[in-house]
Write a structure and sequence with these properties.
By secondary structure, the protein is an alpha+beta fold. The chain folds into 2 domains: 197 residues, Jelly Rolls (Sandwich); 91 residues, Homeodomain-like (Arc Repressor Mutant, subunit A, Orthogonal Bundle), CATH 1.10.10.60. The chain has 13 helices and 11 strands. It has a 6-stranded antiparallel beta sheet. α4 crosses α7.
């Protein structure tokens, strides 16, 4: 990933296979690393980029299965006063953070205090993590008790996971100045998610709204061909009230109109795709239009042409899915 932010990269790719895992174990990270199943791997794929991110660090890692640990001795001698908030895109983990049993899978957030003990088995994974010092978090939260191994799956974990993914997409174009400002906002978002209160949520309301809208739009795109796609379906899938959903789509003309627009755009795109042989009626039904007249009327209102005229002209500049 190209970026203008200062960063450090480690990769086992160019190393001999028999030296890859040993090289990974010797990296100066907070964890003690050992084979996941007790047997030394014949090869080990790992790649980590660590970026300066204002007062924090952000990392992107791809790595094979392994066991992570912070022993009592390591915590005492080399314990780092950092919290690591990690979002798993794939893979997962299970084990203990201190005395607490923890587990997670793709889409989950792992919260670790790197000054405390832990022991987990990690599957081959892709993850994004943000490291924040105790002092900075203490300014935001006060007490740091009960954060080590915190489980966010039933609360704000889905939102924080989506936020991490949006942040990752922005990272390649950030300057150091932009990263410093974004890092401050990100720390506020994390603090609001781990201990949500009205006071903490107020400063991050715009970020919360933008991430929620992105989640809702992605949900619409994934389900364009499903008849049950509706405001009620989105509320259920996103875990929000109708009022919250409708308010988020006010600037887009309302959620009903947004779904209709995306379905019409998808049909228009299919109709002018080279090699598409299905009839207009079949494409309409594919994207949830059960009534021919309703579909024809909506299409002409949007494009100023009937579907047949649109297809016959072979228009190339139709709206693409966002």
């Amino acid at each position: 990933m190209s970026t203008i932010l200062p960063h450090v990269r480690f990769s086992t790719k160019e190393l001999p296979a028999n030296l890859q895992f040993e090289a990974w174990r010797e990296q100066p990270y907070a964890f003690e690393v050992s084979p996941a199943d007790g047997e030394w791997p014949k090869s080990f794929a790992a790649e980590v980029d660590v970026y300066g991110f204002g007062p924090a660090l952000i990392l992107r890692a791809r790595q094979g299965a392994q066991r992570y640990a912070i022993s009592p001795e390591r915590a005492r001698k080399r314990g780092r006063n950092l919290f690591l908030f990690t979002c798993y895109e794939s893979g997962g983990y299970r084990g203990y953070a201190g005395a607490h049993e923890i587990e997670g899978e793709a889409g989950d957030i792992q919260v670790l205090d790197l000054s405390q003990t832990m022991n987990t088995i990690e599957a081959s994974s892709v993850m994004t993590g943000i490291a924040i010092s105790h002092d900075i978090l203490r300014e935001k939260l006060g007490s740091l008790d009960k954060l080590h191994g915190l489980d966010l799956r039933k609360t704000t974990g889905a939102f924080l996971s989506d936020y991490f993914q949006l942040l990752l997409r922005r990272l390649p174009t950030m300057s150091e100045q932009e990263a410093a400002a974004t890092a401050e906002a990100t720390i506020n978002v994390i603090a609001a998610c781990v201990r949500p209160t009205q006071e903490r949520m107020m400063p991050v309301a715009a970020h919360v709204q933008s991430v929620f809208v992105a989640r809702a739009e992605a949900m619409v795109e994934r389900h364009l061909q499903e008849p049950q796609l509706s405001p009620e379906f989105l509320c259920q899938q996103l875990g929000v009230s109708r009022r919250t959903l409708y308010r988020a789509f006010e600037e887009r003309g309302g959620v009903h109109d947004y779904i209709l627009e995306r379905r019409l755009a998808a049909v228009a795109s299919r109709m002018t795709t080279s090699g598409e042989t299905r009839s207009i009626s079949e494409l309409g039904e594919l994207y949830g239009f059960s009534g021919r007249e309703t579909f024809w009327r909506a299409f002409k209102r949007k494009y100023g042409l009937t579907p047949g005229e649109f297809r016959a002209r072979g228009l190339l500049h139709h709206p693409e899915p966002s």
